[in-house]
Amino acid sequence: MTFTNGYMGKWLKCDLTTGTLEDFEIPEELLRKYLGGKGIMTHMLYEHALKLEANGINLKEFDAFDAENPLLFATGPATGTRSPSSGRHHAMALKSPLTGSIGSGNTGGIWGAKLKFTGYDGIAFYGKSEKPVFLSIIDGKAELHDASKIWGLNSVEVTEKLKKKFDRSRAGVSCIGPAGENMVPIAVIMNEAHRAVGRTGMGAIMGSKKLKAMIVDGNAKPQAADPETFDAKVTEHRTKVKENGVTGEGLPAYGTGILVNIINENGLFPTNNWQEGFNPNAESISGETLAEEYLISKHACWGCPIACGRKSYATKGTYQIDKTEGPEFESMWALGNTTGINDMSAIIRSNHYADIFGMDPITLGSTIACAMELNEKGYIPKEDLQGIDLKFGNADAVVELTWMTAFKQGFGKTIGNGSLKLATKYGHPELSMSVKGLEMPAYDPRGAKGIGLNYATSNRGGCHVTGYTIAVEILGDVDRLSYEGKAELTKIFQDLTCVVNSTVNCLFLTFALGADEYAEILAPITGWDLTGDELMTIGDRIYTLERLIINKLGFAGEQDTLPKRILEEPLPGGASEGEIHNLEAIKKEYYDLRGWVDGVPTAEKLQELGL
To answer: Which is nearest to 257 in space by CA: 201, 195, 330?
Structure first.
């Protein structure tokens, strides 16, 4: 079976309350407006939000674990084609249990391509099951199954058992671990056991629906409308990816961990809960050290020429482990640097637990670091810690709290709610390094002004992959400490990212490819006449529609801000010493470029975008 124009032409709707499955189609008109992936799901969520409001539901008070919170998974027109790095998929929910804003995440591996090969472009889950279930789509046939025998298992165990059950060693498996089953707000959805829909608590939503896993496999192949032109562009684009210093050299050699030394040398590597931006011992937890002492091999997601993934082990010391994957740059930072830990083996062990139990290492490590600062300043009663020596640099505490959080044990139950709820509980919300309740990742915006504006205005919260301005502020030729042009730069990166997450490809490609290149390869896939400018308008439309959703959830200009520490406390040392972030210097300019007033899109802007 082959399908032209990049799409398979149907979605699966699964009502978990009734156990019914049915196919539905997305009109071409909507695909032209939103592409697929994140774009089409944002449209679906907005329509669902309108429906809930019409039924008298107040979305600001709406519970993320309500059966009416949909859980959506989608590919895009490039997924599963020979387009570089096109094995990814995007997942979304109307409301995050961690932040109260929109739920959204993107992940690699093989699952996205394998879903496409079943003959489906996406899956929409509604309702809740009374008992644990899992979904299989094998060769186009979709079925729900009893999951009682795999409920309680970790991500590695589930993946192995389902592949064996269906005798499909190359199938894609997406699942939750114990953290998702326990509805821990920082739970993720794991695919291929070590790749994750990693932020905003999507795994907790999946757990609330009693949906344990999805296994997908098939032989349907999406095809380009113009195969000859498409093949030529694939060859051209793969050459550009190979010749780029980041995608052709740095990431293949050292994985994302190559950023540790680079970010640290620029003085924006958040240390000890963002109290500093430089760690003199950062080399010990870098990608170079991982490659020299802990690396088994590197590996790639489906169709990816970069191969930034790492398989690793630790054979010495307290935290030995025979084989695992990662850690990525963000895990090296969150489970290491921001908690004051310079022991790579401890980071590998904690990251392994986060993977198999199914938790976001960024929020996990950041929340532990926040708790460490609260404890060291005397804000947490000793009895609350139940014997845990919670201080910066204590690797035992981080490893212990990782599994405790997944199972809601002891102080881990508090950690699992994220740093904002933790810091608020103990009277000091300003010590949560988060935006809209989502912890910021490993780039201190005091040392890179564009990423700070992106954090502040990101719809899902403190997120770098909403608009990765670091690509040019640190790895390019843009002055990282200047505010000039950063409003426009942030908008460009956010809009382009919406396009990439809707095609769906890997964001790392944007080091080598821009909107024009995406248009060049999407046009022969879809058969539509497309330009880079038109794609950027689509990205603007998606981002603006997502903003309309979070406005309904109670977020606007007041929440487009940064932690007090970032705005008022100068960095004490390193290459960014003395810097704060003057967000107000560029926020209004950004709003003007977006056509927003105080974080809310204007009627004129909506009309311009056809919304």
So the answer is: 330
CB atoms within 10 A of CB 381: 9
Local structure of residue 187 (DSSP, 8 states): B
- CA dist., res. 275 & res. 177, Å (int): 33
Q: Name the 3-class secondary structure at 56.
A: coil
**Bridge partners (DSSP) listed for residue 321:** 314
Q: How confident is the model at residue 383 (pLDDT cuts 50, 70, 90)?
A: very high
Candidates 135, 91, 141, 81; CA nearest to 113 is 81
Q: Is 359 exposed, middle or buried (0-12, 13-18, 19+ CB in 10 A)?
A: buried
8 Å CB contact between 177 and 357: yes
- Cα angle 112, 67, 404; round to 5: 75
Nearest residue to 284 (alpha-carbon basis) of 345, 334, 338, 374: 345
Phi, psi for residue 152 in degrees, rounded to 5: 100, -15
Helix, strand or coil for residue 600? Answer: strand
Which sign does the torsion angle of CA 281, 286, 291, 295 carry?
Answer: positive
- Tokens 């002055």 -> residue: 479
Q: Which two tokens stand for residue 489?
A: 């730069």
Q: How far apart are CA 453 and CA 260, in angstroms?
A: 22
Amino acid 359 reads: M
With contact defined as beta carbons under 8 Å apart, do 599 and 591 qualify?
A: yes
Q: Are residues 522 and 230 in contact, defined by beta-carbon separation less than 8 angstroms? A: no
Largest CA distance in the chain: 68
Cα R_g (the chain), whole angstroms: 22
Q: Are strands 295-299 and 11-15 parallel, antiparallel or unpaired?
A: unpaired
CB atoms < 10 A from the CB of 261, how many?
Answer: 18
Joined tokens for residue 505: 């490809």
Residues 6+ apart with CB under 8 A from 599: 457, 547, 551, 555, 556, 557, 558, 559, 560, 591
CA distance 590 to 196: 31
Cis preceding linkage at 478, omega within 30 = no
3-state secondary structure 190-253: EECCCEEECCCCHHHHHHHCCEEEEEEECCCEECCCCHHHHHHHHHHHHHHHHHCHHHHHHHHH
The confidence band for 2, taking pLDDT boundaries of 50, 70 and 90, is low
Q: Is 563 exposed, middle or buried (0-12, 13-18, 19+ CB in 10 A)?
A: buried
Residue linked to tokens 């970790």: 154
Phi, psi of 396 (to 5 degrees): -55, -40
Give residue-wise pLDDT tens across range 591-601. 999 999 999 99
Question: pLDDT tier at 3 (50, 70, 90 boundaries)?
Answer: low
Tell me: the pLDDT tens digits for 104-149?
999 999 999 999 999 999 999 999 999 999 999 999 999 999 999 9
Domains of the chain: 2-222 (3.60.9.10), 256-438 (1.10.569.10), 444-608 (1.10.599.10)
At 21 the three-state DSSP class reads: strand
Residue 73 φ/ψ region, left for φ over 0, alpha for ψ in the -120 to 50 degree band, beta for the rest: beta
* Among the listed residues 355, 351, 366, 367, the one whose alpha carbon sits nearest the alpha carbon of residue 425: 367
Residue 188, both tokens = 């993720």
